[in-house]
Please model this.
Amino acid sequence: MSAPSLLVAGAGAAGLAAGLAGAMGGAEVVLIERSRHFRSGSNTSMSTAMIPAGGSRWQESHGIADSPELFYSDIVAATSGSVSTELALALTRVAPELVAWLSDFCDMPLNLVTDFKYPGHSVARCHSVSDRSGRSMHGHLIDAMSRNENITFLNPMSLLEIREAGASLEARIGTPDGKDEWAQFDAIVLATNGFAANKELVARYIPEMAQAYYHGGDGSTGDAIALGSKLGADLGFLDAYQGHGSVALPQRIILTWAVMMHGGILVNSAGRRFADESGSYSSFGAKTLAQKDGIGWAILDRRIDELCRSFADYQDVRLSGAVHTARTIEELALLIGCDSAILGEEIALATECALGHKVDHLGRSYFEAPLEPPFSAIKITGALFHTQGGLVVDGDGRVQRNRAAIPGLYAAGGAATGISGHGSGGYLAGNGLLAALGLGYLVGKHATSNHENSSGV
Model:
């Protein structure tokens, strides 16, 4: 029996995981990527590299009791039940196996993030590389791909068209100079991300973020939706997205939400807090944008600054000059351009809440510790990071048409529906990477085993 042939479009986390899993299962993989700048300009490389998994060996070594069932229940709670049960169960169940595979077979040095707990997760379950940098994580996946002789990588190369051809699929692939050709494959994986870089689609499906700054790869133009739609594929959760409430200005570098989880606060240009900072950082994107001129300020102190230096993106924020220091509240107010009395009142109230002397009027129940001078202020805005809806897939990543699988066609990551429900509030930290890596891994395995089964092996 000949090895199955697998075409993977996209060299982000989803495509690399699919290609590696397929190649390790014996497939001959052709992996194509249209952007020459994918190493630094993909959503994976721009992420904070968090992979949630409930019941991993890293959690066990830390004495943390968790399970896929508990993780699944957190997703259901965050999305108010508006999530694909089949997909959420598949991803939460495979997550412990996934992080072990990334470590053992892809040589990715993972560790468990235990210094704080992200909103919505019952326990510490986010796994990451040491510098918590998407670029580092992406680099490990690219290195693993480069070492695998069963993967042919073509860049720049685009997937232009798909057509069904009996038991297989035909793909038209082309280079930027207009040269293209048709080739036949046993299976095709769409891993070209979502549509957050497509202003027309964002305005249609996510109007609240139509004018938002987009912090992601320029290749997320909805290619998978266009290709799948021509085959009659089902679409779902197109209003779902991950936003973010703190992107540093004017540098446009992500300010890790760990700042808030360690006790930092957000105020608007008038010096007033405007929402519970311990809530979903995804939903904070729209909340920050709703402030005057779409501007806010993150307030932190020396303790928080030191705790966040393990994040590569926070180091970038510091090196860029975005962190402004003030010895007093009066100096801090001068930096922000607000009334020092108003800002002082907000910091004093936050201090009382942190000490347990008052209940926060915005609903925040955990501040970790009071803010103490000297303070720092970082000018921020809200942003759209990536979409969480797309081609409807089952638990194996098979693209659906009228609720039945299109033979040989798969989707993973932003190209497929995710596990964040509708809107932005259901997004839990790392669920985008889980949908990318987890679905990619499941797709690669299924495409290989399905070929064996169809061949009578």
The two ends are 9 Å apart (CA to CA). The chain has 15 helices and 21 strands. The chain has a mean pLDDT of 95. The first strand starts at residue 5 and ends at 9.
